[in-house]
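tool_call predict_complex ligand=dinuclear copper ion
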Amino acid sequence: MSTHAGEVPEPYGRPGGPPPPERPTLPVREPVNYLNVSYGTKSWLLTVDHKRIALLYMFSITVMFAIGGIFATLIRLELLTPPGDMVQSETYNKLFTMHGVVMVFFFLIPSIPATLGNFLIPIMIGAKDLAFPRLNLLSWYIYIVGAVFTMYAMISGGVDTGWTFYVPYSTHYSNTHVIATGLGIFINGFSSILTGLNFIVTIHKMRAPGLTWWRLPLFVWAHYATSLIMVLGTPVIAVTVGMVALESGLHLGIFDPALGGDPILFQHLFWFYSHPAVYIMILPAMGVVSELVQGMSRKRIFGYSFVAISSLAIAMLGFLVWGHHMFVSGQSTYLGLVFSGISFLVAIPSAVKVFNWTATLYKGSISLDTPMLYALGFIGLFTIGGLTGLFLASLGLDVHLTDTYFIVAHFHYIMVGGAIMGYLGGLHYWWPKITGRLYPETWGRVSAIIVFFGFNLTFGPQFILGYLGMPRRYHYYPPEFQILHVMSSAGASILALGYLLPLVYFTWSMRYGPRASANPWDARGLEWEIPSPPPTENFVGQPVVTDRTYEYGSEEGTTVV
Amino acid sequence: MSSPSETPPVVAHHPALRHHFDTMATQKDSSLLGMWVFIAQEIMFFGGMLAAYAIYRNLYYDAFAAGSHHLDVKLGTINTAVLICSSLTMALGVHAAALGKRKATVLFLLLTIALGSVFLGIKVVEYADKFHHDLVPGPRYSAESLHGPHGEPLTADVALHSQLFFALYFGLTGLHALHMIIGVPIIAIMAWKAGHGRFGPAYYTPVEITGLYWHFVDIVWIFLFPLLYLIPHHA
Amino acid sequence: MPEHAADPHAEPHDHVVPVGTYILVFLALMVGTAVTVAASYVDLGIWNTPVAMLIAVTKAGLVVSFFMHLKYSPRLYWIWLGAAVFFLAHLLLGTGADFLGHLFLNLGSPGT
Amino acid sequence: MFSGFPLFPQQASTFAVRVDALYFFLIGISAFFSTLIATLLVVFAVRFRRRGPGELPPPIHGSIALELTWTVIPLVISLGTFVWSADIFVASRRVPPGAMAVNVVGKRWMWKTQHMTGQREINELHVPVGVPVKLTMTSEDVIHSFFVPAFRMKQDAVPGRYTTAWFEATKVGEYHLFCAEYCGTKHSQMIGSIKVMEPAAFQTWLAGGATGSPAQEGEKLFQSLACITCHRADSQGRGPRLEGLFGRTVRLTGGATVVADADYIRESILTPTAKVVDGYQPIMPTFQGLVSEEGVMQLIAYIQSLQQPGAEATVVPGAGGIKLQEGVPKR
Ligand code: HEA
Ligand code: HEA
Ligand code: CUA
Ligand SMILES: [Cu+2]
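tool_result ok
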């Protein structure tokens, strides 16, 4: 504790530190924070406070998740029986397409970065806001415009191309709303780009004095790597779907084999973004988990620098493996070998992370509160999802597995079992900070356990289905697959319950939850040294960092406000 | 690092300093870095279409050569020169702004706008010619006005593939023109602000990042020009 | 501002490039354009396009270094520009290689 | 076989055995690592659970030795798996000489197959057991994918190019054929069956129902499309002689060379001036729109049958796609 700031009180709630000031039972007036500083719709829709924008995003992506979830529910209902007896084939095809589009582009990609990232990055680095607050708000509006386009496409009849928009089906054969959906994704892409740009500049330029790169929280490292992909990958998908929209509308020939266009070129361009994009979805969740394991076991992360650098390694290598989605597409054999080899390499930094998280727990002081349950769930399910990724990276095996339910299981294990668990874990962990209220701990644990079991029942059987040869995007299927499908649908209903619970008790907690102290977990990090909820500019003075993050146990605090 | 919680500075904050930055230097650095990262993004944005161009050009070289030969090299060269001039005036504008020369700044920015408009005007002439010759991809496309290296009419499949050239020609130059159409009003705003004394040697970042953007657009053209206009014709 | 340990109230100091440099760069760009056009009328065999691209890269380098001041700017900008160029190169290489792949190793037609 | 509760697909091709071996290996690896991680998580979570507020665990910051261990071991496993899987993949691409050729055309929403002896089938394919079968595929509209789970075989059929795949069935029986690439409304009904028969039974089957072989039909097309006017066996036509063309290396104007495989001949018919044979004028008209994908395949079969006297008859057309010139890439 070297440097000092005047009137601000000592961070409290730390063992041996000053006791937390008694909160008056009947506060005359709540201290001013970002939530109560102003009221009214306008104060929210025109806000440039990164914390409020985070909440705008949180609300929007929850709506999107519910929409995507409803599509998923319908899919699982339809697949209860082999003949397509609930909806028409046209409808089924639209269901999984819109499920994929909504979940990927409008829920999971913005999920952690735009909510937790937006909220926490400036605080974690000791800044008053992101570098470009107005740009941040603009990103949200762009996101909304993109979502409106896509919603329009869905309401006016839907789109049926699969979330991958493979040509020439999407450009020349589908008579659904490909153009509107494509425009929605195109527009939404700029939201992603601008968010990434904002994070990069913020992380470079706005760190508090003393907060060197090697003292940075891992959450911030993960978001830096994510932003790299957002900025350099997203533009490619933007032009690509742009070209698809143009081609569908004007029939230019770019993707039409009859005019000399090449369908495989589309796949290259699509996956050049969409593979890195899967790391946009998982890296932030990895960042969250790195925070959770140290916070909930009160121990500095094991192998800090390896965890930090592995994020960058994943982001960089992730750009070089896109062709592993095209092993049987007619891509040259030679290229297939290269892409497969690099895909195996990209597994290594992920493995490093998993092992370091596990090692962090060793001799920790482990609390099994909700965030930790989600974190443990994440590690386990991500490991399974990632290891099955190795099956797919294996050329000879992928020939059999590609476009079957094995793929569906693989990516749901990572995206639902991994990324969403990470998101929920982070949401619980920082909920007191965000809202100033506590959520009901028991319900939290119950929901975490329900999600874990429901999830495994939903997607575990799909691995078997996939190896048996059940193709994905199938409305009708041979009767011998029914039992496994029924198991999956049963799991999905449990899973839905698990997701509904947090929705309910979080809503409850916003109004009725007990007030949270500044540091309810007794964790380390700048965000825990300011009040919950934080004041508008986060810090009263300029925080100065004097030590590494996560120094538990040493009375050398990390920071002084 | 001096601690800001010491006595508040006597010097008043620069009026352009936004609340969440501590110093003008950080604010400027952030804006510049932001623009460079944005330019990195732009490279990939054009890159996607460039990849399509590179592949089809290699697959259908004759068709691309035939299409390219319909383009007016003279207009293309003039436009390249115009754009380079506008880059120079832009650089001089930023230079003047950095030195606090108000009149010169405005003058150079206005010159840049004028040159940018000339470029766009010539582009309109060129596009009009393509419309006139039915060279706009789509249902009305016709390769009738194209010809092979020795003036002979195109064979059927070369004619067919020449549409790809024009699709990518319009795609790439259209995207480029769009960037200029966005750039011109921004420069106009900068000129207006400069004229009203909003900038000085201590603060001219907006002019500077506008300049970066404009130069980048120039660079894109430096590549598009030989790729689209100058495909040589020897077999 | 870890990267800027300057007095917070100091005015930013910029490297001011002399006007003469701008003019020289401008002239070089003009000459480069002329050479590109001229070269396209000379039969260089397969080298026409590489030459044109080489000139374009040089011109772009001049604009970036001087007009855009990259030469006098922090290395970070370089890194970001480099990253974009690196990944763009991979995009072109990867997709391009698919269409050239059989040049290296054509496992597809062992019968021939 | 169409009922019950299977957990494992039938093994009915030479690949099935090899793919399954790799599958089990990876399951072993995955089981090992997931169990390891899960056990450690649970053991640590219980053993080191928080016993009271203010507990301070000992600081442990990392260990280079451990980091190296868990970098190197997965790396070695990964590389090993890569080599193994690549080996299977390369084998699945290398069609053995003498394989029985079958043409496959995907069309929304059916599979059309044709044997070299002329039999056509829709959504069915009869093959003999123990004989390598090579499929040359294309599509008339969108991308489809020919998937036979029991053979662990899958290949996309792409419009505008030929793709190939091969298998050798090892068990007599009837197996699912699925379309595995999403192709529109009835994607899930673009299914069929592969019927593997004893060679003798297959010969009997083959004897019935044959129309003209693809080569014969190709010959008819060759006449009716008037190819014959330019491509004459006596070298007097305006186009090159096509006898013995298949599999030969052709010299093109500009000096590049190209191997005359199926893709090249297809291109020669549909976009003739893309690659012009050295010494000839680009006068051949395009036949795009005049001949169906099946027709093109038949023409290729016919040209393939036009071997120089004494040359080997079963030449295997190449896989791969629309290709750039084989020789020097153009500018
Ligand atoms: C967040 C999303 C996410 C993530 C992180 C990943 C991660 C990985 N994915 Fe996945 N993937 C998807 C989402 C994701 N994927 C989606 C959506 C699709 C389908 C798209 C579609 O077609 O619709 C897909 C499809 C897909 C394919 C294409 C299959 C096909 O269509 O044929 C492949 C092939 O290589 C693949 C591989 C991998 C690999 C190797 C990883 C690796 O990064 C995983 C690394 C992690 C580990 C390996 C686990 C931890 C390690 C250990 C515990 C130690 C032990 C390790 C070793 C022994 C090496 N994925
Ligand atoms: C982030 C991404 C994400 C997420 C979270 C999910 C979540 C789920 N997915 Fe999704 N899925 C994809 C991404 C995702 N999926 C993609 C990319 C595809 C490929 C699409 C394609 O092929 O093109 C796919 C395809 C896909 C298929 C394959 C379809 C096919 O190939 O035919 C199936 C089938 O079981 C499925 C099931 C599920 C289920 C049961 C969930 C469950 O986890 C969902 C559980 C959630 C709920 C049930 C909602 C909970 C309720 C609320 C939040 C409240 C809502 C209600 C109100 C208040 C009104 N998904
Ligand atoms: Cu054909 Cu799916
Ligand atoms: Cu991938």
